[in-house]
Amino acid sequence: MRELPSVPLLPLPSEGCDIEVVTPVELEQVARALAGDGRAFSDLVAPHLPLLYRLAGRVAGDRALAEDAVQETLPRALVELHRLDGTTPLRPFLAGIAVGRAHTLLRSERRRRARGPGALSAETPPNPGELVEAERTRARLRELLARMPKKRRQAALLRFDAGLSHQEIALALETTVESVRVLVHLARRDLSELLLESQSAEEPER
Description:
Elements: H1 24-34, H2 38-45, H3 49-60, H4 63-79, H5 90-115, H6 132-146, H7 150-161, H8 166-173, H9 177-202
């Protein structure tokens, strides 16, 4: 019986990772943004944009869709900013919205392509030779994640990629920490099994 491989595609943060502390600066920026200060809102979200683009890209597998998802995340976050109660960190709040928007846009794009066979929007820039293997790895990761149930996939992205704690993921997905622990455990098991399956399929017959 073959052992399940480890999952090298996604770094696993330490289990002792605690929830982020909301800083006084963040609290002040939230208050100013809620009062209509657009500059405060921009300053608030700017440090988190690289993470949002990365998460949206993981979900959508397409740069244009990821950019659209982040662009839709920001006004949605502004509308829902009142949900932050002074103890809820901004990062999981934004990450949850971005992952949800990316899923929605991906579903819409798949429906659009299914209706019209004419448009494959593959904006695939040529990769330098040294990046080909990295691109294959990313593609395989997207494929493996796409085969998971939606909430399990979201938990995997937020845990393994964004490095959020279980508490932060619970806030982002609006569920309990216990449920998150189960989702993350199942996601890690699924990734290991699917990776083994993928590697077995790629092995040449002897």
